[in-house]
Model the fold of this input.
Amino acid sequence: MPGIRHNYALLSWCPQAIKPYDTGNAHNPFLGAQWHLLPQCYPNYKTVHRRFQQWCEREVLREILTQLANTLREEGAIDEHESFIDATFAAAKGGGEGVGPTRRGKGVKILAIVDRHGLPLSVSTHTANHHEVTLVQLSCDFYMLEAKPEHLIGDRAYDSDGLDDDLKADGVNLIAPHRSTRKLQTQDGRSLRRDQRRWLVERFFAWLQWKRRLLIRWEYYATNFLGFVQLASITMLLKQF
Done:
């Protein structure tokens, strides 16, 4: 775990030129810098970048994230019975694979499932031109716990009969407010009260956006950007120990 804590500063090193008024504070991990401007406490930037790519390709960060989440669940710090799902948009100005065109420009979607404390249970990245309903099953492939959530709460974008049936077959109860165009009401008003706590997943995205590296995707390879999202989630879980 100490090695993971030592890589915390990598999260916000952004591959773009530092502004003139930032150069004096290049050691600050929240300002952003190019890879070759890493602090001297790190090895050569080429070595750091190569090692990070190897971690992403071998899914090392995902394995560490899974072990941390299961350890916290055993200690009672994670409660997956009531989980929340949502997605946020990140512009992709570096191009590359896994980028989709939208009205807001080219970008990717960061899809996350958090527990009732706002801790990540699943984080994944997808092209931005796909609807969130079609990405839920893909996000379940990145789910880190053996036990699936009893209740999964989302916003109106997840109001889908097909998705409801698929999750119910897996033992997951989907709770989402009805769309204005829906004629047949399928949700119980009492269970919809859980939607009032959906701010937990919004807070998780706010935590992610503190990492300048994740505001805009500059990485050409989608696996590298996903690796930074996973590394950010690791730092959140480490704070629970």
About this structure: The chain is about 35% helix and 15% strand. The domain at 2-238 is CATH 3.30.420.10 (Nucleotidyltransferase; domain 5). The radius of gyration is 19 Å.
